[in-house]
Amino acid sequence: MRQTLFALTLAAVAFSGPAFAQTTTTPAPQTTPNSPANTVNDRRENQQDRIANGVQSGQLTAGETKNVEGREANLNREIHADRSADGGKLTARERKQVNNQQNNLSKSIYTDKHNASVAHYGNNEIGQRRENQQDRIAQGIRSGQMTAGETARTENREQGINQQDRADRAADGGKLTGQDKAQLNKQLNATSRQIYRQKHNAAKAPR
Length: 207
Hints:
- By secondary structure, the protein is an all-alpha fold.
- It has one domain (36-200).
- The chain has helices spanning 2-23, 36-57, 62-85, 92-113, 125-143, 148-171, 178-200.
């Protein structure tokens, strides 16, 4: 009987040993989303997602997108220069300055997305092409295939097309003539090729 109890006790200890060891293992430290290493990049990616959503929904017009992406491009250049000068890292002062700029940019994105300005495309051929190109730009922003600088340049061209569209319609009783359509399609073709090149070149948005 004593031998049986002793054997059972040994078996219980042997069985519980690995389980006990697992419960007392200290988990590896993980980087939290708010840690200094991630804050700048996480915020930058989040803002690009917000811009992409605004472009796709029409809450951000081409002009508004051009402006915020121009500021985003300048901020990206500043971050790159600061990191190059400091061994790949940002100092505490630089990180604070970048966060202040990101706060201002975030407020601008919110304001632009909630003001009265909305992108309108229409159901005609030109309107559908303009909307399709904005969808392609939004996808390029979201995927990182289009950098902030590339987006700003493309949206500058989109803004010019939109302005010409409005001017042509105002001059022709709200409609586009055959000549107007041909000219706008020519510009849309050039912008389409630009979007394609930007989405397939080596330049990628920092994440």
